[in-house]
Specification:
With 283 residues, this protein is α/β, with parallel strands linked by helices. It is built from nine helices and eight strands.
Length: 283
């Protein structure tokens, strides 16, 4: 089952994981223990990269998954097959989260398929490197904010009436929020907004028993980087500036999303985890 909703734009993003070499590591590393048994999760950007790894791990832990993606049908179907291989169920919803109407429909389709929603993972994002601020067009600036932060607002607004006590929201921010990025001015600005959104939303919902947290990955090998405009030289040295001297893999980030979504993190809200290769950000 694949639903198609309200497409706004089409460009090189987010890119096909099926065409990426070497392939990112998405496979869960450990047997499941039922930590999400009976849960239903919406995961945006779940066709590839971190989103695919999260969907795979959540499925191994017992969750049913709504795979939300923008363009890459083949990647989304691969993630759906991965979820099925883990013994769970998934639907694919092709949608642009930058549209409020699309976000409302994502929630409707998830409820139609699974009857409830327990976890929202706001993972989808886009980036467009520019070394000079004057080169960032108004269209690009609006589009980056539309996807990266407006989409989180829209989808959270749509899902909020269906979240009960014990539900969890996990947002994806970035190490660039804490370090800054000379060539990702608009992207890093949205990630700062996401961190503030996470902390404020936590304060807003914690009294209702709904936890809100975030993950701030460092350089992770996903389609976002080669398809987001990084040049060949940057890709050759991607991640080497971290203390570990390498980029991370999606399956090194997904456990942070699992921890924050399950009861292991029952006393955590408004917090950010930092799988970033050893970068100290004190935030």
């Amino acid at each position: 089952m694949t639903e198609t909703i309200d497409m706004i734009h089409e460009d090189a993003l987010p890119g096909h994981e099926s065409a990426l070499e070497p392939k990112p590591d998405w496979q869960p590393r450990y047997p499941g223990s039922g930590r999400l048994k009976g849960k239903v999760a919406i995961v945006t950007g779940a066709d590839s990269g971190i989103g695919r790894a999260v969907a795979a791990l959540y499925a191994r832990e017992g969750a049913k998954i709504a795979i939300v993606y923008l363009l890459e049908d083949d990647d989304a179907e691969k993630t759906k097959a991965i979820v099925k291989d883990e013994g769970s169920e998934a639907i694919c919803i092709k949608a642009d989260i930058g549209s409020k109407d699309a976000c409302n429909t994502i929630v409707d389709k998830t409820l139609e398929a699974f009857g409830k929603i327990d976890i929202l993972v706001n993972n989808a994002g886009e980036q467009h490197p520019d070394d000079d601020i004057v080169n960032i067009t108004e269209e690009q600036l609006r589009r980056t904010f539309q996807t990266n932060i407006f989409g989180m607002f829209f989808l959270t607004q749509a899902v909020r009436p269906h979240l009960g006590k014990g539900a969890s929201i996990v947002n994806c921010t970035s190490v660039t929020m804490y370090q800054g990025s000379a060539s990702l001015l608009d992207y890093s600005s949205t990630k700062g907004a996401i961190t503030a959104f996470t902390r404020s939303l936590s304060e807003n919902l914690v009294g209702d028993g709904i936890r809100v947290n975030a993950v701030a990955p460092g350089p992770i090998w996903t389609p976002l980087n080669p398809c987001g405009g990084a040049d060949k030289e940057k890709l050759e040295h991607f991640g080497e500036s971290t203390p570990m001297g390498r980029p991370g893999q999606p399956n090194e980030v997904a456990p942070a999303f699992l921890f924050l979504a399950c009861e292991d993190a029952s006393y955590m809200s408004g917090q950010v985890l930092h799988p970033n290769g050893g970068v100290i950000v004190n935030g």
